[in-house]
């Protein structure tokens, strides 16, 4: 939470970095339970880095670009703050509102797939929304629940076959909210381009332009907020969290990277088993090429995410790419069910 609140206050007080840090931690202190706040500021003598963030303005300010680049999310919490919510509550309410809307969207998706099964759809939706990972995301001060909402809209667009420009705007919005979703945006556009080329022998220049626009926006955001880069993020996340970024350069050797990947991959076994089983079920149940392509797209993005940021124990980071595979299974089932219903 401090990073997102600091990013919000920086837009309001761009020339007062001390004030930004003080406001951030004073607001959190007012509303957070004492034990959580003490943990946040590193009351434990061994939590040196957290103590720096809470007490040293340079240390805190240099961490902010990691959060500032999530422009769409910062705008969402800023909107709620301007509407009268306290800064910490504006962060939490963004997740809670996203949770509620996501429930409505899941119900809508299931209603599209099984149009006459309202009671079953309602119970199924309730069961999905009570999944531990979704409940956990709804209470976290991160953009994960917010971006999940847009993934659900994307799935609606896929099922209802929205135009490529509408889908492009969705991908652009996702990248605006979480720039690391640039990989999903570009792989989707690339998949559509290759699918059209091999099935229709058509080179769709529009998709290339859309990819260039998305990539340009991504680069602009990175430059605007002076984002340190992937090496710094990986180093701070998995090797050593530097109290002051500018004092110690980040260096990640190939050996360092492979050691982290190797150690994290074993925790990823359940996810690997789940996504491969779901993808295999989709391939077994459907021979439609486009459904298979999109399924492989989501499968691939689980591992693209892992290779760039192998926080394997944190399922919330991968869930937005895992859940669509489950919806794809239901989509294939609905096609068979609706076909049999018409025959009956």
TrEMBL record:
Chain ranges passing through the membrane: 66-84, 91-112, 118-138, 145-161, 181-198, 205-225, 261-283, 290-309, 315-333
Alphabetically ordered keywords of this record = Membrane, Transmembrane, Transmembrane helix
Q: Is Disulfide bond there in the keyword field? A: no
Name the chain's protein. Glycosyltransferase RgtA/B/C/D-like domain-containing protein
